[in-house]
Amino acid sequence: MAVALLEERTATAREREAFDALGAVMDPELDEPVTDLGFVRSVDVLGAGAPATVVVHLRLPTSFCSPNFAYLMASDAKDALRALPWAEHVVVELDDHHDSDLINAGLAADAGYKGTFRHEAEHDLAELRETFRRKAHTAAMERCLTALLRAEPTRGVESLADVTLADLPAGRYTDALLRRRGALGLPADAVVDPDARVMVDHTGAGCAPADAGLLLRKARATRVSIDGNAHFCRGLLRTRYDGSGADQVERSDGAEPADARYARALPLTVIRSGKDTP
């Protein structure tokens, strides 16, 4: 199916390569690639020779999305595209945001976050990234442990304190958890670190069995918040930009029945020369 959809597009191989590179850019709050969320509005590659110019336009669910989140995603998109060996010049612009002019000027000048927002930038982006890495790890941990409880109904919640990486079944929840642990510098290989505990904080500290229930509930609140925000933002984007639902990839975590109509295996319209009307 994916091959058939790709053949229907008029995108060039380089435009496809550029779009794929953007798949590494995450929305820090939603813990999801911008390509899956439909935030990539257009991708154009100018010039058929070895050195080429890549022009990407991004869009967000509202005009007032947090400027630091917006800048972080746009800056990461530029870095991802610059890594392409044939991309000599990269232009990333954020559309329809109340700080679009400021952000786009900062990106064009490579001014960095503080250089762009100057006195308004109280913290650097490293702190923001770390905060959301920890939240993403907490949510991934909760998904794994809750799935374990559902698979083993007789298991007591206290026992979760002693669950190790070797106890987790193979699958996307475990894979996601290992990636999040790796990002925090925690043991992240179930073969190399089979005895590493799953229920740990961002420092790797575990908990007593008596505290496992409370920690799981706190982790669940974090996970529900991420899932809820992700679906809320997807809906806002679809409302703001007609047809943008076709550029979103289904998110099964936290999905409601009404989301099924928007499910797509791959984005269909994101790679094109023109832009749709907001």
Automatic annotation (TrEMBL):
Provide the MIP18 family-like domain boundaries: 17-93
Gene3D superfamilies referenced in this protein's UniProt entry, alphabetically: Fe-S cluster assembly (FSCA) (3.30.300.130)
| SUPFAM superfamilies xref list | Fe-S cluster assembly (FSCA) domain-like
What's this protein's name?
Answer: Metal-sulfur cluster assembly factor
Protein source organism = Aquipuribacter nitratireducens
